[in-house]
Each structure stands twice: as C-alpha cells, then as structure tokens.
Amino acid sequence: MKLLALEDKLTEDDLKMFWALTATDYKNDIYKIVDNISFYLQQPHFEFFFNQIIESPIEKLVMEDFQCLSEFGKFTKDDTFKEKCANFFWKIISSSASCREDIVQTAVTKFCEMVKVWDMEKKTPFFTMMTQNLKDKKSSYATLKLYKGLIQDIKDKS
Fold it and tell me: How distant, in Å, are the alpha carbons of 63, 64, 141 from that of 131?
C-alpha cells in the first residue's frame, strides 16, 4: 500500500478491496496499516477512507476510526478536508447527549490532537461554537473538556 501510494498507483478499486478487509478479523491490522501510511496518501485516498468511516453509525465507531480521521486531518494539505474532519468530531462532541461517553471522549481527544498544529484563526470558529453550546446548555460537559484541551494546547505552545 505504501509503495502504491508513493508511486501514485493506488486506485479506488485497490482501496475498496483493502477496506473490505475491515469487515473481517483483520480489521485492527487494516487500521494500523492505514495509520502507518497516512503520511503518504493523496487527497482522494483521504476522501475515500473518510467517506467509509462516516457511513458507519456513530455508535459503531471504534478508536481506530477516530485515529485515522485525526491523522488524515493532520497530514492533508487540503484545508477544506481538515475542516470536514474537525466538523465530524465537532458533530459528535456537540451531540454528546446521544452518544456513548467513550466515543465523545475519543472525539474530544482526537479533535485536540488534530488541531494542535492549527493557528488560532482556524480554531476561532470552534471557540465560538463552544461558547454558544455553553450558553445554550448543550453538551456542556463535552464542550468544557474540549475547551480544556484546546486551551492546554495554546498554553503548551507559549
């Protein structure tokens, strides 16, 4: 996979065949491979995997799904795609009342990891949305955890 990605020979058919293995006992191995080759993937590959992951019901997502999306958000050069990943995490965080706590916590953690390298201008809309959540008393606990994570990142950079 890595070699195919490096040589820009990784086709959608290859990706479909590879992704099909996530429905088998090899699921964890597939996620490890995707995680290891994330740096070498092209934007269409990120889009393919992103679309496969978000098609799953939120309650069926596993840590590896979040890890992949976080890595994709770090390695893509496409700002629109970064926002798509961030918005996916935000959707889970801001609807935390309808999600399992472990899924929400993972979304918070992976969101923070992904946006750690973003400048403040890119993070500002999320601070605005977090403030609105708190004002509306919506997903307050998850929102506060996200606030804490993002502020800690800012503090660590100083």
Answer: 27, 29, 12
